[in-house]
Specification:
alpha+beta, six-stranded mixed beta sheet, 10% strand
Length: 328
């Protein structure tokens, strides 16, 4: 049974106790039946090859009263502070011993939360096409799991929780997360005289995979959509600063890529606030090659960015996360 496997892990056992103490607050966590579930999954862009397994495991979930009670508690915790920045639920990944149902359990949590997410979007006047494209990132991340592990599931369920909690929206090529300036970036913004500082609202930019080139024109279109979207649907929040925290802002990339490349032109939008001092080589390897644990000596050299990432590591270098900002 799913719960037995989770209780065997001390960290997850504590997480379960915390959820049980909160209860389900009367939240109804209903899943579509086996006939309806495929259509819902397709609407969320879940890959076709994963749908049969999710439909089959839905029956196993429904036959496990403890697992269904856990589902209800997870949904209740997830929707409790819907739309509030930084108050979303961060579900932990389940261990392999939790079996196939544990591997996909969080997919069912997000499916069961859909009625609450869509009600929040309607309340905010979020256009249906923005809602659809934002929530479809669930399917993209199922595809990421399959590319890396060979099975369906979610590597980072906490990340998808931002989409389903009203904190992140897909607007064109980029994703925009309602966030607050951190200490170091906030101080850099304040020092530049932009009228904002640590703790003030900002939009954190994210670059989803499987979405085509990061061209300057695509970025400009996304930024235009974001300016209009947040002014209309979150008028009480002033978003005048955009930030990005990514290996794509590592200044070392300029040693390998030409100035006219999409990545360097994306970099050039930002004022660099600071660069991490701890290497994080697995992040670029994972994003560029699909698996952060690939042997460095075997990384292919099929494109400029593949050559940049791999050659730098093979030469003994490391990659670091950069933190930048610009005024919207």
């Amino acid at each position: 049974m799913l719960l037995e496997a989770l209780r065997a892990d001390a960290r997850l056992a504590e997480w379960l106790r915390d959820l049980e103490s909160e209860g389900d607050a009367g939240v109804r966590a209903a899943l579509p039946d086996a006939d309806e579930l495929p259509e819902v999954l397709l609407d969320l862009s879940v890959p076709h090859e994963d749908i049969n397994e999710l439909v089959a495991l839905r029956a196993r979930l429904g036959d496990d009263p403890e697992a269904m009670a856990l589902l209800a508690r997870c949904v209740a915790r997830f929707v409790r502070d819907m739309g509030e920045i930084g108050k979303g639920w961060e579900p932990p990944p389940f261990p392999e011993c939790a079996g196939p149902l544990g591997r996909v359990f969080h997919v069912y949590v997000f499916v069961a939360a859909l009625p609450y997410v869509r009600a929040y979007h309607r309340e905010r006047g979020v256009p249906q096409e923005v809602s659809r494209r934002t929530l479809a990132d669930l399917g993209r991340h199922v595809a990421v799991h399959r590319r890396r592990r060979g099975t369906g599931g979610l590597l980072f369920p906490w990340w998808i929780s931002l989409h389903f909690h009203g904190e992140l929206f897909q607007l064109g090529r980029l994703q925009f997360q309602r966030a607050r300036l951190g200490q170091r970036t906030g101080r850099a913004v304040a020092a530049a005289g932009k009228g904002a500082g640590p703790g003030d609202p900002c939009l954190s930019l994210h670059i989803p995979d499987f979405s085509g080139p990061l061209s300057p024109s695509a970025c400009e279109r996304s930024l235009g959509l974001a300016r209009e979207f947040f002014a209309r649907h979150y008028p009480e929040e002033r978003y005048e600063i955009a930030v990005c925290h990514s290996w794509l802002l590592d200044p070392q990339l300029k040693r390998y890529l030409p100035p006219e490349s999409n990545i360097i032109r994306f970099q050039d939008r930002f004022e660099l606030a600071h660069v991490e001092t701890t290497p994080d080589d697995g992040v670029p390897v994972g994003f560029v090659f699909g698996d952060p644990e690939l042997p460095v000596e075997e990384l292919p050299r099929r494109s400029g960015v593949e050559r940049a990432v791999g050659d730098h590591l093979r030469a003994g270098g490391h990659w670091y996360g950069g933190h930048g900002w610009f005024a919207l």
